[in-house]
Amino acid sequence: MNANFELLTELTEAHGAPGHEDRIREIVRRELGDVADEIRTDAMGNVVATVEGSEDPDYEVAVAAHMDEIGFMVKHVTEAGFLKLDALGGWDPRVLRAQRVTVHAAEGDLDGVIGSPPPHTMSEEERESTDEIEDLYVDLGRDGEDVADLVSVGDVVTMSQDTRALGETVTGKSMDDRVCLFAMLEAAKRVDPDVTVHFAATVQEEVGLRGARALGVDLDPDLAVALDVTVANDIPQFSDESKHVTELGGGAAIKLKDGSVITNPTVRKRMESVAETENVDHQLEVLPAGGTDTAGFQNTHGAKPVGAISVPLRYMHTVTEAAHADDVDATIDLLAAFLDTETGEHDYRL
């Protein structure tokens, strides 16, 4: 990876469940402190770093990437000291058993593990049953009294996972959406825009695009671009290439649609033109389901031209997600080039 792998590692290994993005917020403010003309945080916790345009500061572009990761909230502590969970975001329960987690308690972080009964003691029916979040529990390795003193209902829980280079890919937890947040931060350090750009690190995307919708009330941009990951199903389970959506190593994905938005065709075409002019590897994305902050901007402050750039991701919404280093670099390159060539004179009307 040409970009700063240490920063990406810091972002992905930091913890920030929806509504509890404090640690990520600190990193964002630190990284953009020397770049932005103004940094502010709203009541929901969205961070907006504004870079004033040198030629047409009245024309405004908003770029958004979300800070939160899927996680859990403690909903009950049993007398024996086991924690029952409520999901914050869309988990696949099949991959959660026997995984290490971090419980973010008032007095500090606690290590735990999601329990998994040994198969030797399970009936055939139990082995074939489908897990649900309500069936899971966290074991802190402490007795009930200790746990009751340390953990409260409402404490959040995130996965405990390190970030590693694996061949040409980068793997770890919360690549959704920290890899795109990383791309936004790196692009912000490169650009010298003619127009004003608001770099927005949003909250609570994983529970309904809530941060972007709230931010769209405060910001009234002329153009909005969101960065998020997208599905890369280029794996053995998907022999039908039409279901891959994107492929790792194919470059930055320029979104045409997902479950929440159809991007503006003129914005998308300009993104393609910039990618071709700058020789940035890219591919087109048609995502059947799922949503991004793009829709949050489109729905809150009237009709806005919107576009989106995605980083292809394998194993999305699991414990270990994987992105290709070249795709991350391509996303940074494309976003920076797109912003540097935005003059405020492009006609995005349909």
UniProtKB/TrEMBL annotation:
Zn(2+) 1 binds at residues 66, 176, 228. One of its GO terms (molecular function) is aminopeptidase activity. GO terms for biological process: proteolysis. Its cofactor is a divalent metal cation. Pfam families: Peptidase_M42 (PF05343). Zn(2+) 2 binds at residues 176, 206, 317. InterPro entries: Peptidase_M42, Peptidase_M42_aminopept, Peptidase_M42_dom2. Residues 109-129 are annotated as: Disordered. The active site is at residue 205. Keywords: Aminopeptidase, Hydrolase, Metal-binding, Protease. It comes from the Archaea. Binds 2 divalent metal cations per subunit. Belongs to the peptidase M42 family. This is Deblocking aminopeptidase.
